[in-house]
Every structure is written in C-alpha cells, then in structure tokens.
Amino acid sequence: MSTIPACPQCAMENTYPDGDNYICPDCGHEWPMAETARADDNADAVIKDANGNVLSNGDAVVLIKDLKVKGSSTTLKVGTKVKSIRLVGGDHEVDCKMDAGNFMLKACYLKKV
User: Fold this and answer.
1) What is the mean pLDDT of the chain?
2) Residue 56 pLDDT more than 70?
3) Which fold, 1-41?
4) Half-sphere exposure of 64 (CA within 13 A, CB side)
5) 44 in the Ramachandran plot: left (φ > 0), alpha (ψ -120 to 50) or beta?
6) Domain locations in the chain?
7) CATH class of the domain defined by 61-112
C-alpha cells in the first residue's frame, strides 16, 4: 500500500514525490510534503467547548442542552455537571462517566466549569 496521498485538488491517486513536494500529473497541482504530515497529526488537535474555551483531560464541564441517549429512554439533562473528562479522537471528542453510565459526547454541547 502506498503512503503517497491523493491529490487534494482533484482527488486522483496518481501522485508522486519530487524533492520536497508531491505532484499530481493529472491536474498539475503541487503541494509540500510537510503540509501533509501536519494534517495527519491529530496529536495537536485543540478541542474547544461551546464558548470557545480549550478543553483538556480532567476538566469539569456542564451540559448546555438536553441530550437524548440513542437506543435508550434516558435523557441527559441540561446543567448536569461532568467531572474528570477524557479527550479522545473522532466525531465525539469527550469520554466521560456520569450516574447514568459512560458516554461519549460532542464538545459543542459542553461548557467548561
């Protein structure tokens, strides 16, 4: 399997490295290899709450909206405080424990306390 990325402009996979750049012969687009390395690195991803405050592991947050739990009749109520969150990758950035169980939540529904 090739580690050379597809062209970001035309999405064709017929790309090749040339010096410090990748080149797409189909559309002629050139882009630096270093830019691709930064895009693949999610370790520097900053997760922010609904107010734009940066979240970190161990923070306490409060729900800003009632959230229905999929596959259950449980609803997480607005104002519920969650202590000691853990940040994870993916669509739901926050992993936490509450009285109702363990949940993965989106940061846009949380406010840092």
Assistant:
1) 86
2) yes
3) N-terminal domain of TfIIb (2.20.25)
4) 12
5) alpha
6) 1-41, 61-112
7) mainly beta
